Amino acid sequence: MIISVTGEVLSSAVVAYAFSRLQWKGRDILFVIVIATMMLPGQVTLIPIFILYRQIGWLDTFLPLTVPSWVGNAFYIFLLRQYFMTISKDMDEAAVIDGALEYGQKCRADRQAGQGSLFSPGAGQDNVGKIQERYPDLPEWDEKTRLAHEKASLGFYVTGHPLESFRELLGEFATHSTVQLREGSVQGEVAVGGIVTDLRKRKSRKTGAWWALLRLEDLEGLVEVLVFPKTYEGCQKYLENDRAILLSGKLETDEDRVRIVASSVAPLEALRESRADAVQVRLEAADLDADLVTRLREAVAAHHGEAQLFLEVARHGSFRLVAKAEPALRVTPSQSLTRDLEAVVGSGRVRYRARPIR
Fold first, then answer.
1. pTM given for the model
2. Domain hosting residue 38, numbered range
3. What is the pLDDT along the chain (358 residues), one digit of tens a residue?
4. Is 178 left (phi over 0), alpha (psi -120 to 50) or beta?
5. CA 300, CA 308: separation in Å to the nearest integer?
6. Are residues 80 and 100 in the same domain?
7. What CATH number did the domain enclosing 174 receive?
8. How many angstroms separate the CA atoms of 78 and 338, rounded?
9. Which residues lie closer than 8 Å to 221 by C-beta, 6 or more apart?
């Protein structure tokens, strides 16, 4: 009994691991075939198995009770495969990194002690080969993943900040930073952009409605945010840890506490579409000619919408004029609009005006 159970566990675990964690040709097809064997009734396989055991001389022995258990069990393979698939790939990478760091420290200590060059010339090349054989060639993390791991392991960002790519947007749409909120002179409605952290969702005991508490982290600090049920219902899909958002609401302050009661939430990646109600394009007077005007009109016509278009014409050291374009030239704010306009007038000459906070 012990031999059979041990065999089924070990063999099924190995096969399940191969089906769930390793990539090889024909893996999924073979797994389907293995699972399909569970649909065969025992009565169908009883006589063929008996004939097989008789031909190999296993009758009247314990071998039929123990040996087959060491080739895996389809049901156990299925269960263990499902379990292995729930284990995050990050744990694999963390284990590899941990082992690589330990090995690197040992090699460094050996070099400092002179062991590598004194006793084993050329050992460095052998070690490189062993490392390549031992550790998989993992793809480099993208910036979002790298920053998330830095924050999770160290408690702060090292190589960058998730809001760096949104710095220009925050300058256009955010009214204050978290540091400015704590200066004491800010009152009323504010708009602050940042990363959602420490999100806690709660359910009201009286009404059963959901609400949330969170902290919003920008490039300068943190601020506490309260999201009541009415607001939460409309923005819950944007409320998740590590999500970049622009949050508008009423600022509440007392002696030792600063908090925002949220009234609206918008994701930063779609901020122009959701919060901009006007677009301003800067033109240099010296560059104005019939060809530029024609190309600008074509770019605007390709993004017709409801946002007002303003044209800013300037000559350095001389004058600056801002004019409202005719109603037919209204546009839809978007990243593609920015690209098309900047292709005509130049980079950095397109700005969005935020819808006033009510």
1. 0.50
2. 2-85
3. 688 888 888 888 999 889 988 888 888 899 999 888 888 888 888 888 889 888 988 888 888 888 888 888 888 888 999 888 888 776 766 666 666 666 667 777 777 776 554 444 445 555 555 555 555 666 787 887 888 777 777 777 788 888 888 887 787 788 888 888 888 777 888 989 999 988 999 988 888 899 999 999 998 889 999 999 999 998 888 898 888 999 899 998 887 788 999 998 888 887 776 677 888 898 888 888 889 889 999 999 999 988 889 998 888 777 788 888 888 889 988 878 888 998 998 887 888 876 544 4
4. alpha
5. 11
6. no
7. 2.40.50.140
8. 52
9. 177, 178, 179, 182
| Assigned domain for 148 exists | no
DSSP string spanning 33-64? HHHHGGGS-HHHHHHHHHHHHHHTT-TTSSHH
Same-domain status, 248 and 342 = no
- Could you tell me the CA-to-CA distances from 216 to 76, 189, 272 in Å, in that order? 46, 16, 20
**Residue 77 carries which side chain, given as an amino acid letter?**
I
Identify whether residues 172 and 265 lie together within a single domain: yes
Burial class (CB in 10 A: 0-12, 13-18, 19+), 139: exposed
Q: What domain count does the chain have?
A: 4
Q: Are residues 79 and 27 in the same domain?
A: yes
Q: Which of 17, 134, 187, 150 is nearest to 87 (CA)?
A: 17
